[in-house]
Each structure stands twice: as C-alpha cells, then as structure tokens.
Sequence to fold (140 residues):
Amino acid sequence: MNFGEKVKELRTKRGLSQTELAAQLGVTTRTVGGWETEGRYPRKQELYNRIAEILGCKKAFLLNEEDSFYAEVTEKYGNRGCQQAQDILDQATALFAGGELSEEDQLAFIHEIQALYLDSKERAKRFTPKKVSAHGNSFQ
Fold:
C-alpha cells in the first residue's frame, strides 16, 4: 500500500472528506486528491507529521522505503523531479521482467539507482549556469 492509499484509507476511517482533511492541513482539496489518486507526495516534510497527527497514525506508517525516497525527491526537486525519479525507477524495474536476479539483488539495484539519481541531481545543480541580470549582475 502506497502513501496515497494509506491516506485515503485512514481519512475515510475517520469519516473525513478530502475537503475536510485539506482544510485541517491548510492545503487544497486538489492537493489531497493528488496524493490519493495521482501518486503525488507532500512537498514539505513537516506536512507528514501533521497528516499523521490528524489521521491518528505514526509518520513511519505513512511512508515505506520507496515512499520516503519519493518524499525526499519531491521536497528537493518538486513534483517534476519526483515524476522523473518514478519514470527512471519504473524503467529500471522493467529490466527485471523474466530475469534471474534474486529479490535481494533487485532491491540492491534499485537502491543504487535511487542514490545515482540523487547524486546526479546534486551534481547538475553545480553546473547549472547562474542567471544574469540585464546589468551583468549574477543572481540565483
């Protein structure tokens, strides 16, 4: 069960609508819907604590290892970065179809892909050119 499925299940058990949960969290109903149906994740880590508090669970319950990775990526690089990471991991996982790798080796491979993704994003930041104003002053 992923993050969105867990939020939806806990929300409905508590008798809350998406609108009511959104109001308590200070986000839009569309945001809650995105978590539940579109595989999106909150952009700020502190929001996970509020969700857990309102839904009466522990933050650790909301996030499995994969969800934790996506939450970290979303916070650092936004929803677009998260979608890129999901696409990369989906493609990497497809390599295992009909393969001979053990589950342990598959998991190790996925962990390496995740680490490479985060490392490449950090390296790319260093080489992203600074924007230059019309007066020749650089700013970021």
